User: Fold this.
Amino acid sequence: MSGIDLPRLLPEGLARLSAYTPPEGDYPVRLDANESPFPPDPVVLDQIGRALEKMSLNRYPDPYSRGLRSAFAQRFQCSTQQVMAGNGSDELIGFLLWTLRASQGQSPPVVVIPTPTFAMYSIAALVAGYKVHEVPLTSGLEPDMEGMLRAVREKKPSIVFLSSPNNPTGTFYSREQVDALLGSSTGLVVVDEAYGDFSGEASWVAEVSNVDNLAVLRTLSKVGAAALRCGFLVAGCELLDQVNKVRFPFNLSRYTQVAGEIFLKNYESTRSRVIAVVRERDRLEAQLQRLSLKVFPSRGNFLLVQHQGKEEALWRFLQDGGIVVKFLPCLPVAGDALRITVGTPEENDQLMDRLKDFLAEGG
Ligand code: PMP
Assistant:
């Protein structure tokens, strides 16, 4: 009997990657996954609870997630036909990559991403058979627009992924910068607005009707409903018709459809929570700077922080004190860094106290 020849079967580079591993154990303060520290309004939770009680479990859910997509379209002012719903935006990133695999006859097709950025773009692209072309951010972690535009001209990517604000740096792409990339690309430019609510800027969703190589990703994961796994892709109908062929027929559970629709219809109640997070982000940034830590300005719900090459030691020290943040070793451009999700005021105070202990102990 001959065994499976895995190296022959796996896409190039997969064996070198590691699976996502969340920290093991129970930690009282979780500041590692860019979730909202605030649960939804109790009125919203109550409505969801009552709707779920009436749900028929024996039937498949609506394959088109119509109620959910329509609630999104109303909230973000686009047409329901321009919206696809997915199990988080992760799933939609995968669908897009599968759909555009052979564009422009390139073999292999190319995606362009700035780095450092959200890891799923390159993982999903690699698995789908793309070549990933990375354009490092500048040393100040600003977009290298010259480099991006050159990469778009020379590599003719099928997709450019822009996380704006960018995970993990907090970098924001201005209107002019996105316009320049849209104008010079014959492929798709995806503006991933996972952290869009925290940026204080207008969404690109409304532009999808005017620009046919623009797609926008949104998610409920950062604004209080990460457990739902509910994300949205907004794109032109011609492209969405094609992505729909790739999408699994009943990709969204009825739980997610029902709860997501109610969450979106009450989206106003997330506003005060978003404002509280932004206020806490700015407070935390000022406090960290006062302790002489290096903090990059962020438009998201997290801060990228460095401390004299002692990031790993600090990460362990925080974890020993029951506080988890994300340790990002060897980031392109930045090197070792910690990404700290903004928590509740109490959680942020605990973080600061523990940090002061670290510094007092000579860290
Ligand atoms: N885009 C970005 C930039 C992210 O940081 C994340 C999650 N960390 C996602 C997309 C995926 O979000 P979800 O699948 O939870 O919608």
Summary: DSSP finds twelve helices and twelve strands in the chain.
